[in-house]
Design goal:
alpha+beta, ten-stranded antiparallel beta barrel, 3 helices
Length: 186
């Protein structure tokens, strides 16, 4: 009985603050509507792409991307994995994971993204219908941005660009063109 009472007390101590932070129905509806504007990204996609590394060598890869809404439509998770002919057999290739949410106070998308054991908190924006752009600065001299579009239903096109002059000019270093798994297998 003492263990149960301790568990209930501990649960209440941690649950109460979380419940107190629950959004109002209006804020939840605004956040859900913002995530719904990203519905063009929802699904499972496969295809090919290329990337130019710091060594300026262009490499090709095969990519698998999955995006889905979670937590009652208040966030979107995006998970990607790529393999290339240069990868060692059995070794994992590139893997990334991100969580997109809407910050109604800042009036913008925010994304927590993880790849290569590093995490970034980045801002994102819808730049056009079915176009989502996000980016980060890995150091003071470099800005990187990615733009995800759905040129046609059931497709995912993503390009990556880099700037070394505070965004005055951008050079593409990455592109992938994916198709929804259902469409790719038909």
């Amino acid at each position: 009985m003492k263990t149960l009472a301790s568990f209930i007390a501990l649960f209440c101590a941690f649950a109460a603050p979380a419940l107190a932070q629950a959004p109002s129905p209006e804020a939840a509806a605004e956040r859900r509507a913002a995530i719904e504007r990203l519905d063009f990204m929802v699904g499972e996609f496969r295809g090919d792409g290329w990337v130019v590394g710091q060594d300026r060598v262009r490499r090709t890869f095969t990519h698998h991307e999955r995006a889905e809404t979670r937590a009652g439509g208040l966030v979107m998770t995006v998970e990607g994995a790529a393999t290339s002919p240069e990868d060692s057999p059995g070794a994992p290739g590139f893997q990334a994971f991100g969580v997109i949410s809407w910050n109604d106070e800042a009036d913008r998308y925010e994304m927590q993204t993880y790849a290569y054991g590093r995490g970034y908190s980045v801002a994102g924006a819808l730049t056009a219908e079915n176009a989502f752009q996000w980016g980060f600065s890995p150091n003071a001299a470099v800005d990187i941005r990615y733009t995800i579009t759905a040129p046609t239903p059931g497709t995912w096109r993503e390009i990556g660009e880099v700037s070394t002059d505070d965004g005055a000019t951008w050079v593409q270093f990455f592109e992938m063109n994916l198709a929804a798994v259902d469409a790719a297998t038909e």
